Amino acid sequence: MILSAVPPNIRHALTRWMIEPAAGVFVGTMSARVRDELWGIVENETHGGWALLICPEDTEQGFAIRTCGDDRRHIIDLDGLQLVALPAEHLDNPSIPGILSTLS
């Protein structure tokens, strides 16, 4: 799980279950129930920040991506594959390639 600009209480809650090897990056192994409970807390308490969760899932890719908050990246589902897309205003900027520009 990666967090940015979230209240400190979220970070404290996560450190009970995971380690924080770098600022805002949390890693751990837990049951799906605990993971979903923690993600619910993050979704409800993000308040202006953003969060991203990558977790094992029975998909073609072997994982699922969840996001919440005000991040400019969006997760799109393309025939069961989760891809990361940038908003349209970044697609005309050649220095910031977007996934949608490679598909068109």
Explain what this protein looks like in three dimensions.
- With 104 residues, the chain is α+β, with helices and mostly antiparallel strands.
- The chain contains three helices and seven strands; from the N terminus they run E-H-E-E-H-E-E-E-E-H.
- The strands form three sheets. The protein has a three-stranded antiparallel beta sheet, with helices on one face. A two-stranded antiparallel sheet has the order 2-3.
- The longest helix has 14 residues.
- The radius of gyration is 15 Å and the shape is globular.
- The mean pLDDT is 86.
Index terms:
104 residues; alpha+beta; three-stranded antiparallel β-sheet; 3 helices
Calculate Rg over CA atoms: 15 Å
Biggest sheet overview: 3 strands, antiparallel
Query: What is the percentage of strand-forming residues?
Result: 25-35%
Tally of extended strands? 7
Low-confidence stretches: none
Strands of the largest sheet, in order across it? 1-4-5
Could you outline the blueprint of secondary structure elements for this entry?
Blueprint (H helix, E strand, L loop, with lengths): L1 E3 L3 H8 L3 E4 L2 E3 L4 H14 L4 E7 L6 E7 L4 E5 L2 E5 L13 H5 L1
Antiparallel strand pairs: 1-4, 2-3, 4-5, 6-7
